[in-house]
What does this fold into?
Amino acid sequence: MRILLVEDEPSAATMLAKGLREDAYAVDVAADGETALAQAFINDYDLIILDVVLPGKDGFRVCRELRTNHLTVPVLMLTARDAVEDRVEGLDSGADDYLPKPFDFEELLARVRALLRRKPALYPDVITVGDLSVDTRARRITRAGQRIDLTAKEYALIEYLARRDGEVVSRADISEHVWDESYDPFSKVIEVFIQRLRRKIDGGHRLKLIHTRRGEGYMLTTKGTDVDD
Ligand code: CA
It folds into this structure.
């Protein structure tokens, strides 16, 4: 899942981005409202974390412009203080939730998860595909009850495929939602990660869950045929 973090304070932005990346999110950072809007129009973010106090356009204005332009991406607003008028203005400007500063990072993660569960329908905390289970709270996966150790990026990729199980997911979608703006479209990085996941998840199992649709993308399903694999 890919997040746009809009925060002008460099140390706060660095700390939050680091924490979110450790939790397997792809994170782009914008330091002002104009940049944030430009990035939100180009990239299909799963969530925007938007600080209210920004140079130039503030968070309220950025949020209003997103909604005026029909972008429905969930917005979590970081309000400078727990003032009623800030919260009301945030929600009125189209934010889905707010978090007053200072906040506990665990609470930020919980709110991020809650907002991501809403899109596009209500997702359960634990997604299952056959005997594969993806616990999106604990960020842990098991197959046939056996815990599988994954890196943050491997986890992010399998979670994204699991959220869309039964659908062919294109490389473009994967690069957009699992990698951040540093992704190199000419690299083979997605293929490399798919191979690693195949080894870890499908290795030793007769029923393969990860399938390739040549020229189209990848699919996580119990009903795959091996024709294209
Ligand atoms: Ca700020």
Summary: Residues 7-9, 51, 53-54 surround calcium ion (CB under 6 Å). The mean pLDDT is 91. Helices lie at 10-22, 33-42, 59-68, 84-92, 105-117, 152-163, 171-178, 189-202.
